[in-house]
What we know:
It is a single chain. By secondary structure, the chain is of the alpha+beta class. The chain has helices spanning 2-22, 43-51, 92-114, 163-166, 172-184, and strands at 34-35, 38-39, 55-58, 73-78, 83-91, 118-125, 147-155, 160-162, 190-192, 204-207, 213-215. Residues 8-25 have low confidence and may be disordered. The chain is 32% helix and 25% strand. Strands 6, 7, 8, 9, 10 and 11 form a six-stranded mixed sheet that branches.
Amino acid sequence: MAVALRNAVLALLAVLGLAACGTPKPPSPPPPAQVGGLPTDGPMCIVGLVNSNVAFDRLKDTANGDGCGISTAISLYETQTIPLSRPVQVSCGLALALLRYDTEVLQPLAQRVMGSALVKVHHAGGYVCRGRTSNRSRLSEHAFGRAIDITAFEFADGRIARVKDHWRDRGALGDFLRQASQGACGVFQVVLSPNADADHHDHLHIDVGPWKLCKA
């Protein structure tokens, strides 16, 4: 009787183990549906950019629900007050977040810390179909156009705060960079600075993906 009971228990455990092994991982949560009260996808997102005087071109959407691609894709040239160093392919949702970052964080910070207006944001790219630096088997938010890597901020008086050169600077340039990184955490979902790891020693990674993480 004891042997039969033991065998029954072992059989049940084996079935449960197989069931657990076959259970798929839960899907990632969706990215934020709104930024600053505006939808991050679809025609109304585009309307929000137009009404805010953002300079961009509408691109063909490439998202197909499986793999790399951008939903509500644009080529962004300039937020409301700040041109980019070159056009960048991103999602409309990321452009909205950059608009908010411009008006609510960067320009007020530039005047307070630098005493000069911010006139350009330098970046290393937005959309690119690749895996995460921390786990190449999982797609980066760059693969959906929901991330951008910022390398430097340029001011009206000619000074440039470069992440690579000035992150640990004790003067105004370093102060601006660190505060800009911290301020980004209130706008974006993920912020990764040189404080995060060696992969981000020369840029700020900011994104509007589904996960929340601030390593400013």
